[in-house]
Structures are given as structure tokens and as C-alpha cells.
């Protein structure tokens, strides 16, 4: 089997190559850390080379916009939406604007086993499942192909995800699938992304919690608002419930590996070309960290969003949200100071390889004890 990418530090697993291979020769396979990588089946491959040409890591501008973004502090006017969103509910306002126009929304959801998957929403109920950050890399499946079908049918599409996923979608749609006409109805919303954690570690944690607490997991919230929203609390807000049990438990061991020891992120995150004010989305959403210093009148224990409008289309979409969102334009320097991932990628600790060696040998429970 041959690979599409040069090495693992240059593959974000976006699946553009797999989605556009007409011969069906590219398959996404999980490695020993649980991250998906494209492999080529030589028997089916017709050597057209399109898979390698489309790779967002190989394209010089990585499908990024020109910059010149406007920066806003944003907060949904509904307390209920704020409570059910990771930050200030910007995603709900943006997606409501598209759904109200008869459009379709794509974003990250859980499947029945709490695996993180991209999904398609045509209703508010389906969209609501996409709310709240899910800290494991989401599996794209066939969602690029579904989005292209929606665009061909003349539907408006809001596609949300990490900047590398949106770069992958742009690569896929730009590869002879109807060109600019198709892109007219496409709205892209990226996140400022710290990095993406391993789906394997997340799946192992789900099993471990079920074993330790004795029952099936019924509900998971990576960013609960039971504690006031702020940067310090954001690393303590993982809660879950078990089937048939009214109690909510808190368990921060996953966050310790993700934000603390920094061992469980995808190798390409350390080499991420998207940690830049030049974005892949028409709109970018994140937490407005530091709002208590810069605009205390906007601070809210239920959350405040940072929103960047990066293109004309982004500005047009944001305008449609004014009835739902309190929006205040802010100097870009605030976000550039508070958001490390707008300028530099994460650095891995020196013991990353050692961590994975122990993981492979002894499993998650053993690594949590070290
Ligand atoms: C892996 C990851 C890392 C992040 N890193 C940062 C950071 O460094 N700084 C920062 O300020 N914000 C970061 N965020 C974004 C932040 O946590 C909020 O998701 C964002 O502010 C949107 O909040 P909201 O209140 O508008 O809406 P919500 O309703 O909470 O937003 C949910 C949105 O996030 C998307 N989403 C959720 N999980 C995933 C996933 N696994 N992969 C792709 N898309 C997903 C959904 O599709 C939806 O669009 C990160 C999010 C994720 C998933």
C-alpha cells in the first residue's frame, strides 16, 4: 500500500484525497494512535495523481483567504443558547440564518457510541446536536460528497469544522466539480483550533468510564456551563452521565492529557499551516478569552464568542445574525494576544513518543497513572 502524504506531519486527515478519487482507490485507515490516514490501493489506482495535487498541506496558500478580517466580540441574546454552546453561541446564530433560508448545515456530532463524526442537519434539532466542542478529531466520512450534492441541487450550505477540514473541502470542490458556480452558495465557518486529540484515546476513555463507573454512558458534555465560562474553568468542564442515573460526574483526566501533558494530538497539528490570521473560513469562531480585561461590560459567565468575518460572504452572513447576536467590533490585537493558535501551532512535549509506547503496551489506564 502506498500513501498519499509525504509523512505523517504533513497529513491532517481531511479526506479530500479520498473524496475525490474517482477510482475509489483511496481509503482512510486508522493508525496505532487512532488517527485516520489515506492509503492507496495500487490495484485500483489509475495513477492520475489528483489525490496528491489536492492535498491542502501541499498547496502553497493552503486554501486560505487574503486576511483583512474584522474582529468581533459576540454573544447570543438567548440565555438558553448560551448555556448550550461552548462559547457565546455564534454557531447557533450563523446556522439559524442558513437554516431559515432553506439551507443545510454540516458540523461535528456524536454517533450512538460517542464517536465524533461530521453530520448533515436540515432541522434545528439535528443542528443542536452539533453544538459544544467535541475534543476528538471528527471523522469526515462522505460529508464532502454530500455537501457537493447539496450545492449542485442549489441548496445553501454552511460547513463548519477545523480550518484543515475546510481547506480539504475547498480542495475537493475546487477539483473540477462545477467551479465557482458551485461555491456561490457555500458558507465556510472554521474554528480557531488548539489541535485535534486522538479518537482512539477518546474511545478508550469512554470504555474506561463505563467500566469504572459501572454503566453505559448516556450523555457527555465537553464544555459544561455548570461552572462560569472563563479560560481557567474551560479545562475543568468535562461532565458525563450514565444511563438510568440522575447524577452528573466530572472527570478531567482526558483534559490533563490534551491541554496539560499535550500528548494526544495529531502529529500534523505541530506543523499546522492554519495557525494564522489568514483563515480558511468565511467566518471564524472561537472563545473571546480576555474579554474581562478588554470589554468587561460584555463579559458573561455563560460565554462570549470571538468572531472573525474574513470575506465579503462572511460579512453578509454575519449581518443576517444581528437580530440574534450582540456584536461589538474589537481591535485585532486582543485576539492576536490571547489566541496562540492565530499565530503558532502547539509544540509537543519531548516525552510524546514515550507516552505512546506505554499506551500501546499497557493501555490508557496505565498512562493515566504516570
Ligand atoms: C478541537 C477543538 C479545538 C478548539 N480550540 C480552540 C482554541 O484554541 N481557542 C478557541 O478560542 N476556541 C477553540 N475551539 C472552539 C471553541 O471551543 C468553540 O467551539 C467555538 O468558539 C464555537 O462556540 P459557539 O459557542 O459558537 O458554538 P457551539 O455551538 O458550541 O459550536 C459548535 C461548533 O463546533 C464544531 N465542532 C465541535 N466539535 C468539533 C470537532 N471535533 N471538529 C470539528 N468541528 C467541531 C461544530 O461543528 C459547531 O460548528 C476549539 C474547538 C475544537 C472542537
Low-pLDDT stretches are none
How are the strands of the largest sheet arranged?
A: 6-5-7-8-12-13-4-14
Bound molecules: flavin-adenine dinucleotide
Taking the alpha carbons of the first and last residues, their distance comes to 36 Å
Q: Bin the helical content.
A: 25-40%
Shape descriptor? globular
Radius of gyration: 20 Å
Number of strands: 14
Number of helical elements: 15
Q: State the secondary-structure class.
A: alpha+beta
Beta-strand percentage? 15-25%
**What's the order of the H and E elements?**
EHEEHEHHEEHHEHHEHEEEHEHEHEHHH
Record the SSE blueprint.
Blueprint: E1 2-3, H1 16-20, E2 26-30, E3 36-40, H2 50-54, E4 70-76, H3 79-83, H4 90-100, E5 104-110, E6 116-121, H5 124-128, H6 143-152, E7 157-161, H7 163-173, H8 179-183, E8 186-191, H9 199-213, E9 217-221, E10 239-242, E11 248-250, H10 253-260, E12 283-287, H11 291-294, E13 305-309, H12 312-319, E14 325-330, H13 332-338, H14 352-362, H15 364-369
Parallel strand pairs: 5-7, 7-8, 8-12
Antiparallel strand pairs: 1-3, 2-3, 4-13, 4-14, 5-6, 9-10, 10-11, 12-13
The chain binds flavin-adenine dinucleotide (FAD).
Which structural traits does this protein have?
3-stranded antiparallel beta sheet, 370 residues, 19% strand, globular, 14 strands, 31% helix, 8-stranded mixed beta sheet, binds flavin-adenine dinucleotide, alpha+beta, 15 helices
Amino acid at each position: 500500500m502506498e500513501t498519499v502524504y509525504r509523512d505523517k506531519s504533513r497529513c491532517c486527515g481531511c479526506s479530500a484525497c479520498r473524496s475525490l478519487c474517482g477510482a475509489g482507490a483511496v481509503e482512510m485507515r486508522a493508525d496505532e494512535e487512532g488517527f485516520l490516514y489515506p492509503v492507496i490501493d495500487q490495484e485500483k489506482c489509475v495513477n492520475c495523481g489528483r489525490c496528491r495535487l489536492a492535498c491542502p498541506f501541499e498547496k502553497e496558500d493552503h486554501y486560505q483567504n487574503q486576511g483583512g478580517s474584522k474582529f468581533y466580540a459576540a454573544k447570543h441574546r438567548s440565555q438558553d443558547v448560551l448555556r448550550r454552546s461552548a462559547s457565546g453561541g455564534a454557531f447557533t446564530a450563523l446556522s439559524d440564518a442558513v437554516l431559515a433560508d432553506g439551507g443545510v448545515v454540516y458540523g461535528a456530532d456524536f454517533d450512538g457510541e460517542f464517536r465524533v463524526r461530521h453530520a448533515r442537519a436540515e432541522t434545528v434539532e439535528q443542528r443542536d446536536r452539533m453544538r459544544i466542542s467535541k475534543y476528538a478529531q471528527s471523522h469526515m466520512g462522505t460529508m464532502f460528497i454530500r455537501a457537493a450534492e447539496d450545492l449542485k441541487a442549489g441548496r445553501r450550505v454552511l460547513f463548519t469544522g477545523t480550518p484543515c477540514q475546510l481547506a480539504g473541502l475547498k480542495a475537493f470542490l475546487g477539483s473540477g466539480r462545477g467551479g465557482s458556480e458551485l461555491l456561490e452558495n457555500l458558507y465556510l465557518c472554521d474554528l480557531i483550533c488548539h489541535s485535534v486529540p486522538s479518537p482512539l484515546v477518546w474511545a478508550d476513555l469512554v470504555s474506561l468510564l463505563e467500566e469504572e463507573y459501572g454503566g453505559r454512558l448516556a450523555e457527555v458534555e465537553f464544555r459544561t456551563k455548570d461552572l462560569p465560562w472563563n479560560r481557567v474553568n474551560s479545562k475543568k468542564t468535562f461532565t458525563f452521565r450514565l444511563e438510568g442515573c440522575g447524577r452528573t460526574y466530572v472527570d478531567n483526566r482526558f483534559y490533563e492529557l490534551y491541554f496539560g501533558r499535550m500528548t494526544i494530538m495529531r502529529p500534523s497539528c505541530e506543523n499546522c499551516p492554519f495557525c494564522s490570521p489568514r483563515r480558511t473560513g468565511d467566518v471564524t469562531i472561537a472563545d473571546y478569552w480576555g474579554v474581562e480585561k478588554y470589554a468587561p461590560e460584555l463579559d458573561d459567565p455563560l460565554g462570549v464568542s470571538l468572531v472573525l468575518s474574513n470575506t465579503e460572504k462572511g460579512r453578509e452572513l454575519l449581518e443576517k445574525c444581528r437580530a440574534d447576536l450582540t456584536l461589538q467590533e474589537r481591535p485585532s490585537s486582543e485576539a492576536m494576544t490571547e489566541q496562540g493558535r492565530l499565530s503558532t501551532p502547539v509544540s509537543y512535549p519531548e516525552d510524546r513518543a514515550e507516552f505512546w509506547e506505554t499506551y500501546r503496551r499497557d493501555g490508557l489506564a496505565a498512562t493515566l497513572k504516570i
